[in-house]
Write a structure and sequence with these properties.
- This protein is mainly beta.
- It has one domain: Beta Barrel (OB fold (Dihydrolipoamide Acetyltransferase, E2P)).
- Helix content is about 10%, strand content about 50%.
- It is built from one helix and five strands.
- It has a five-stranded mixed beta barrel.
- The chain is globular.
- It starts with a strand and ends with a strand.
Length: about 80
């Protein structure tokens, strides 16, 4: 399963490399736990809670609500 959309950072990247996101502007929560390359991980790791980002995601294995970020583009939420 793949999806593309805008997401709001709920919890910034933790020590394990996971980030908690909320669908923008809806309220579904999801977790990015894998990254396709270090640049995508660096982009997401630099974001603070409240930031909006556009992502291309794919399901991370068979885990419930865990996703792999294929690409990330920061969005100006102002």
């Amino acid at each position: 399963m793949e999806r593309t959309g805008k997401y709001t950072v709920v919890k910034a990247c933790n020590d394990h490399g996971a980030i908690t996101l909320r669908e923008y502007p809806r309220n579904g929560t999801l977790y990015v736990v894998e990254y396709d390359d270090p640049d995508v991980e660096a982009e997401l790791s630099s974001l603070d809670a409240g930031s909006v980002v556009e992502l291309d995601l794919r399901r991370a294995g068979r885990r419930g609500n865990a996703w792999c970020a294929e690409s990330a583009r920061a969005v100006d939420s102002a």
